[in-house]
Specification:
mainly alpha, two-stranded parallel sheet, 15 helices, globular
Length: about 375
Amino acid sequence: MSHLTRREPSPEDLARFGAEIDDLRARTVADLGERDARYIRRIYAAVRWIEVLGRGVLMACLFMPQAWIVPTVLAGGLILGIAKILDNMELGHNVIHGQFDWMGDARFQGKTFEWDIVGTSDNWRKTHNFKHHTYTNVHGMDDDIGYDVLRLFPEQKWHPAALLQPLYAVIFALLFQWGVAVQDLRIGRVFIGRITWRKLAQEAAPTLRKSRRQLVKDYLVFPLLAGPAFWSVFLGNLMANGIRNVWTYTVIFCGHFTADVQTFPKGIVKNETRAQWYLRQIQGSSNLSGSKLLHIMTGNLSHQIEHHLFPDVPANRYAEMAPVVRDICRRYGVHYNTGSMVGQFSQVIWRIIRHSFPSSPAPMSPSLQAR
């Protein structure tokens, strides 16, 4: 499997390592309270008001002179795109993880929250909350490894079509919400005769209903409300969705596909202890360094390591937990992968290009074989 040649903790050290991670979680959960509730309420309000502002700016195209139409569409599309990013990342993604269930507020319940994206939250809870977070970077179990679209690791089978993946990686980024929406449908099963089109249509029904609502809202209802400015609002909404798609693609790919992340064989999950699970989460994730604004705009997935260790802990706490996690990793000789967004994403780009060509996995490290 893809790995780094680094010393892993001994079984005794690993147990102590896991206990320290457990202790950090327990201390943080015990401290949750009003400031965390206030934070998510403010994010919720910010999302709604920024969306109103973005849609209002786009509607203003009705009254703008011709020379101001394009700048107004660009401004409105950008503002609406920011609202969609915040809705999906700092609000939706974190709420759906159940991070704020303890509040008892119906708006922030992980099992019922729905977000502004074509995919359903039910689908996300299955593919992301369960599959991805349980089996992070395990080949054949974590569908997020390349999303069945890209070859990003040498363990993935090479096909001549991969030569074009630098091109369709760009297309995938522009349409990212659609890739996520259909991820669990595994459409390829139809073409190899595993299921019928009728069965696929039944499985796809919830996604089709949700995507239809999203398309009608963004590309019919709001443009029609703008009357003569129909196409200005249409293009502004298209721009907003594109901005959100490219941003979320970039953040998510930086979280698991940088140069130092490791991937794992299926056998690693057999009899895996909690401490070993923690270790795998850290080895399979990478962080982004940056400002508080960057952390908010990434939904605190800039703290991907902390998110994978504590997926149901409010993400606004990750910045406080990160220095502690980093120190624990340092003391136990565990690599803590972090860097700037530019640096990390450049590694992702290189991985996309490198593995578009044939490549072979390195021999499995003895530490992984032992696990």
